[in-house]
Specification:
The complex is a heterodimer of chains A (372) and B (410). By secondary structure, chain A is of the alpha+beta class. Helices cover 59% and strands 16% of the residues of chain A. Chain A has 14 helices and ten strands. Chain A has helices at 2-17, 19-44, 49-52, 54-57, 74-81, 140-145, 149-154, 183-188, 206-219, 228-272, 274-282, 287-324, 334-361, 364-371, and strands at 59-68, 83-91, 107-113, 122-125, 135-138, 159-162, 165-173, 179-180, 193-199, 224-226. In chain A, helix 12 runs antiparallel to helix 13. Chain A is elongated and about 105 Å long. Chain B is of the alpha+beta class and 410 residues long. Chain B has helices at 2-12, 16-53, 74-89, 213-220, 244-255, 263-306, 308-316, 321-348, 350-356, 371-398, 401-409, and strands spanning 60-64, 94-99, 102-107, 110-117, 130-131, 144-149, 161-166, 169-179, 185-186, 201-202, 206-210, 233-238, 258-262. In chain B, the strands form three sheets. In chain B, strands 3, 4, 5, 6, 7, 8 and 11 form a seven-stranded mixed sheet that branches. Chain B has a four-stranded antiparallel sheet with strand order 2-12-1-13. In chain B, strand 7 (161-166) and strand 8 (169-179) form a beta hairpin. The chains are: A alpha+beta (372), B alpha+beta (410).
Chain lengths: 372, 410
Amino acid sequence: MKFCYLLGERLKAHWKNHTVILLLYLLGTTVCLLFFIYYYGEFTKPNSFEEIYPDVLATYQADLPEAVYLSDNRFDQLRQEGRLTYYHTAKIDFDKSSDLFQDEAETMTFQARENDSYPHAAAFRSVDFSESENALVLGMEDVEFSIEANKLRAEPDPVITLDGIEMKIIGVHNYAYAACVSRRFFAENNIPVNRFTVTLPDVLSKQEAEAYATKMENLFPGASVQTAYDIYGQSHLYGIEQNRLGSMWDAMVMLGVSMIAFLFLAKYLFDMSLKEDAVYRLLGASKSQTTAIALAEVVLLTALSAAAAILLHILLYEPIFTKISRYPNQTFVPADYLLVASTSILVCLIVSLPFLFILWKKSVNETRRSAE
Amino acid sequence: MSKRLYLFWQTRKSDLLIDLLLIIVLTATFFNLSNAVAQYRYLSFANSALERASQNDNDFYYTELMSGDFSEEETVRNLERLEQIQQIKAMPGVRAVYCDKSINAVYGSQSFPVYLCPERQQDLYPELNRGSWYNRPVNDDGTINAVVYGTQLWNQPIGSVTEVRNGENILRIKICGMIYPPINIPTFSSVSTNPVSIDLFNEMPCIIVGECEESLRFFTENESFQDFPYCRNFFVSFESDAADAEIQAVKEILYQTGGMTPMTTIRKNSEETLREQFRSIMTLPVFYVVISVAAFFSISLLYIFRQTYAYSVYYLAGFGKKRILFDVALHTAGLILPAAILNLIYVCRYPFWVMKGIVKVNSHALSYFDSFSAALVLLLSLTVLMIATIAAAGVLHKNSPAELWRKSQE
């Protein structure tokens, strides 16, 4: 109680006699901590698959034991929950196709998406399905591995017959995924789905993802459903976690270095309290007790700065931080702020240790002389 | 004067260590920021150059559809491509076709890429550091004008005549200009079907020669011309008033062989990439500048508070506020000056340090320094000086001589 009283009195004295220095210290450390939160948000928090590739981690892939059709009403439920992509692997009929192939691949996989919402552009001719009723757009991988580009370029109207259906190759898209057809074509020709993926709007935790995969397996009995956690494996996710720890360490070093610039102000405040310390020591206080007051002073002031920085971050997140951030749609939860505040206090304590040690080492006489 | 200097020295000598620390902090901060700005400017150079050269939103980057198999005789196809480029160049509405016409040739004992550059393409290059661009590719003496770029070539005299060799083929060149590294050179060699502007540029030592009959012959008769595909990608720039039909006619031809990325897409992608780069490059240096300026400001005030006793004595002995302020400003300037000078030497002579091998260039973080960089260092120095002096003026202005004395006694 007495300790708290003395601490309060000391802070009051600083406020009364050294307002500018105290304010500058608070302001300086608040700026440091605000940048620390920003850095944490830019480099530590998003250094995970979830933030960098949200689509990948939100995608679930189901391999079906038997063909299912787009009209199957089980897909209706999944359409409500996420974006569906349907795949079909078809047999190539070389006799009824243009002479384009460079190897003996017997099958070709193509896909269809709801609303034909593809992100790609044309790498050759067109990707506009309206050009033909049975339009097929090849993928860059097809051109890389199965189709000869020179022959494709030379052929004015290339066709390919897949599972007996003649399709017109209207172009090549510039993404590294399978060939594409329109959803309408897929439905009208009653093409069976061998495999499909669902991309949910949000990334689920590993447990939630496993539960969702089980739900899909129940919906399609016999299907093998893989989550991104299965595909990318624990070791990959562990590596990401290691990166996060590394960048947190960098952030702490950066905070420590920047805090040193303002600890000269804290040192000035310590020096200004030496007279008071000398009196305490003469009245019987141990040097640990007087150092403890200085320590508590630093902790309290850093906690104040951390609170101010967190408040500023919350207030300025929408107008400023979302505009300068590479990951603007992050959610900062109380645990993030708690981590930031506790780390700041820890770092501040570590960097102020030399100053506190000098204070602790002084004898009563030295303290009295220094105060003069 | 000597008394003033003596007093100045007496006041400051006790804080020499902190002064040294502040000089180091300021030097590092200026260095950090000017480097970050230079890195960003390097990255944005390609975008600015492409924007300068593009006058129509319908301009596009064309990439021929290719597989990895070059089994057929490429010479024929390469010549067809060159012919196609000539055909497009001659079409109404087309302003220029920027294409990667480069071959490796031996100059001295080293091999360098030799780029054929028509006069129109000079717009895309950075300003020359020495000499001037050619108005015509061939000189009266039959030599081809050339601009050289790279650390290995920087000490070549302007006007010197020399030769580059590819097998039996020889091209006599006359060096008319020099570009100091590092900077992006427009190569248009990317095979990306969704490029950003920087993909169309490259950083490598090279010789840029005028495009003429002889340099074209040197290009088409090189040994690799029959094995590798050339001119598969190029940038088509239209006149600002090109008609839709004229643009469509060009697209109709190229549609049959590859894909086109419009300038609007390149611009959008590049702006996104640059925005991202800006955020990742500039965040920490700006943070360090804010922190060090704030720390400098705080420590300047701290000095005044620490020197209150000495100032109050000078003050009462008739040393005016202005003179005290002048002393404070002098001290601050004394801290900023070494930091500014060191940084100015670094940024103004950057290509020299690079070419001498004193500064090792990181190929993942190349920087572009010019007069803007020097101006930035000066501006930053003046800002820090101004902030520190204003802070000191604010403290001194608020206190009378008696108040200063009282404060010094607290």
